[in-house]
Amino acid sequence: MAVRYFAVMTDAVRVRRLAVGWSQAELAAAAGVSRQSVAAVEAGRNVPSVSAALRLAGVLGCSVEELFADSVGEGFAPALPGTPEPAEGTPLAVTRVGGTTVWSVLEEPGEGGFRLADAVWEDGGPRLLEGATPEGCVVAGCEPALGTAASAGPPRGAGRVLVVHASSGPALEALAAGRVHAAVVHGPAGGLPEVPDGVVRWELTRWPVGLAHRGGGPAPADVAAGRVPVAQREARAAAQQALLRALGAVDGAPGGMSGAPDRDGRGPGPRGPLAAGHLAAARMTAEGRVAAGVTTAAAAGAMGLGFTALEEHVVQLWTDRRFVDHPGLAVLLQLWCSPRVGAQLRRLGGYDLAAAGKEIR
Distance of alpha carbon 68 from its chain centroid, rounded? Predict the structure, then answer.
């Protein structure tokens, strides 16, 4: 049976609490929840369980429908705008971002085991699983080690970090739409996208982007002319844009490159399949499916490949100012700057962590 789930109308909780003259601690004591939970609900950082929602409504003298709105199957949005509906039974991660409840397909860690899902896709929407409380911090980005750092954090609660894989363009789109708490953005120093008003930024690292390859790798002119297949990224990916800038500087490179990979090999320009991310591009190269892949030095090294750098990129974490105090962001930055994660990144190679965790003003 589907578990019902109520999305928070944060103003209603605060207004009714103030109307009866209670502090957050007094409301928490009356409802049998923690004061931190009440504060998180009112700030839009947390969604109570069904039982907690019923207790809060009961002690505030109103119905759940008056205090909360929308059921589990209604009002959900994908963390990345435009994400197609997953297959029936697909496990999902679900959390609250401001006034929106978002879902993303749960990416399994590989051979290390299975991750605990918050919901499954059923009958055209997410169905919350028994005992799940969708809370935490959602971060979209393509930094391959981001999930490694997040996995060292708490598995539940406001400090949980959920990583949604996306290149810089879609990650920024999700941040602007209020679907994620933060986005990872990278590009050449001085060439990052324009920073919107109200965005707070931290540096994560700096690394080179370029082409992973076996042996000596293809000649740039052959890549530019489409004579060899290359695993590429979608047009809005910063690494794909770096490739096209580099190819535009090759003598005799064909003009008119639009930025979109030529997947069927027709016409001038790079050709080859789209890769979902940096690691995927390196893996496709290691498997011999392409002559080279657009990726980072660390991803190439992890697959035992050679690497030709095209640009050095600065990698930043961007968040809306209203989420700057989210516990999950503090957890992520603390983990990223920890000796444990730093040592692993340095072993991979290609990471410059000199300014990691520094706020950019």
Answer: 27
Report yes or no: 311 and 192 within 8 Å, Cβ to Cβ. Answer: no
> Which secondary structure element, helix H or strand E, spans residue 213, and what is its range?
strand 199-213
Helix (H) or strand (E) holding 113: none
129 φ, ψ (degrees, to nearest 5): -85, 155
Residue 316 to residue 203: CA distance in whole angstroms? 4
What pTM, to 2 d.p., does this model score?
Answer: 0.76
Q: Which of 47, 45, 40, 38 is nearest to 69 (CA)?
A: 47
Residue of 156, 164, 102 whose CA lies nearest to 139 = 164
DSSP 112: T
In angstroms, the Cα distances linking 333 to 137, 238, 292, 299 are 12, 22, 33, 22
Tokens of residue 240, six digits: 């794909």
User: pLDDT tens digits for 159-202?
Assistant: 999 999 999 999 999 999 999 999 999 999 989 999 989 999 99
Give residue-wise pLDDT tens across range 133-142.
Answer: 788 999 999 9
| Residue type (1 letter), 308 | T
Residue partners of 334: CB distance under 8 A and separation at least 6: none
Q: Residue 234 in contact with residue 283, Cβ under 8 Å?
A: no
CB atoms within 10 A of CB 31: 20
- Cα–Cα distance, 287 to 216 (Å, whole number): 16
DSSP string, 294-357: EEEHHHHHHTT-EEEEEEEEEEEEEEEGGGTT-HHHHHHHHHHTSHHHHHHHHHH---B-TTTT
Helix axes 10-19, 35-43, angle to 10 degrees: 130
